[in-house]
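Assemble and predict.
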Amino acid sequence: MDHAPANFVAPGEGDDHRALREGVRAVVSRFGDDYWLERDEDGVFPFEFHKAMADAGWLGITMPEDYGGAGLGVTEAAIMMHEVASHGGAMAAASTVHINLFGPHPIVVKGTPEQKARWLPRLISGQDQCCFGFTEPDAGLNTTRIKTFAQKVPGGYMVHGQKVWTSTAQVANKIMLLTRTTKYEDCARPTDGITIFYTDLDRSKIEVRRIPKMGRKAVDSNAIFIDGLFIPDADRIGEEGKGFSYILHSLNPERVLIAAEAIAIGQDALRRAVKYARDRVVFDRPIGQNQGIQHPLAERWMYLESAWAMTMRAAQLYDAGLPCGAEANTAKFLGARAGHDAAWQAVATHGGFGYAKEYHVERLYREASVTRIAPITEQLILCFIAEKILDLPRSY
Ligand SMILES: Cc1cc2nc3c(=O)[nH]c(=O)nc-3n(C[C@H](O)[C@H](O)[C@H](O)COP(=O)(O)OP(=O)(O)OC[C@H]3O[C@@H](n4cnc5c(N)ncnc54)[C@H](O)[C@@H]3O)c2cc1C
């Protein structure tokens, strides 16, 4: 295996995807290991990388053509994100651009023509950066229990509440915000009474506190505190109280993209491990000649390839308009596991040097781990498969 996947076209991809990969690679490969190691140390947002991707038009790959996007599907987006995460930038690179691909989907699906014209071109060009305020400290994965409340007032809404883990809020000027407009207790169904907004991140009304974290240091995550934020009616997406159904549109694409990113990180780590195993001589032979070194690497390769096949299957089902919940969740679960395990095996293969920053595999290992937790945990995916596929009683 070469260190860089120069002519890499993965199973499930057509020849027409080769140009897409090469186009993305032309931008991504300008940002090498040293750039990403520096960002991992200083925690500064990768502005140069974001701008380079925007300038090359990649931020609009899934956006409608009418608003300046390329109008492509999840398959192409997954291939793009696989390439983005393959070259040492890992989740820091992926998260810099990931939000643009399916995060704004509620706008695409439910926005008015005026809203789309006002918001989408600026996201595609990189002029606007958006963060997502969905998760709340007291609700966790049980999204229907959010408490951030948007009170109707003349001309708009007055919002108070708290969010946690809001990524990129340090640099974003826009926020997509999930609120309640009717209290949980007053709704017929738990999913009723939730309203979604896309609005200015007004720092005079929103306090943003960075959360120190294990990996992906360059792309910040935050606790945010909203105190008396006025949101005009014009910034509400779709109908009041129907917001929960709008976010469902983007869940399966997001799982597919995370799978692609995790697999890319695992494959990047594996390539580095294989190179090291060939080069490092101990007991007068390359360590990679020992089965104890080569078998786990061979096994990781198989898991990564299998997860990629499931990822492409989920993407192709979605793009064909077919149900893909089981496949997208399975891809996310398997991809995150395979990526994480391969990154760990790369650390182990490097011995003591696996622990040193200069070989980058410890960073890839830290970067890969978040894909097992966010945006949905492994446990909740297992709950979904148990309930929806195996027809077992709902456990949560
Ligand atoms: C780096 C990072 C970036 C993020 N970025 C964003 C962002 O930009 N915007 C945003 O809104 N959110 C973001 N998140 C939040 C992320 O989506 C949540 O952390 C994730 O959904 C898990 O929610 P939680 O942390 O509240 O876990 P909890 O809901 O508190 O769960 C804790 C643990 O209990 C398990 N658990 C809970 N209930 C059950 C059950 N019934 N059965 C089995 N197990 C259960 C969970 O699986 C988990 O392991 C981010 C998180 C991280 C780490």
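The beta strands are 130-133, 149-153, 156-167, 174-180, 194-200, 206-210, 221-232, 236-237, 281-282, 285-286.
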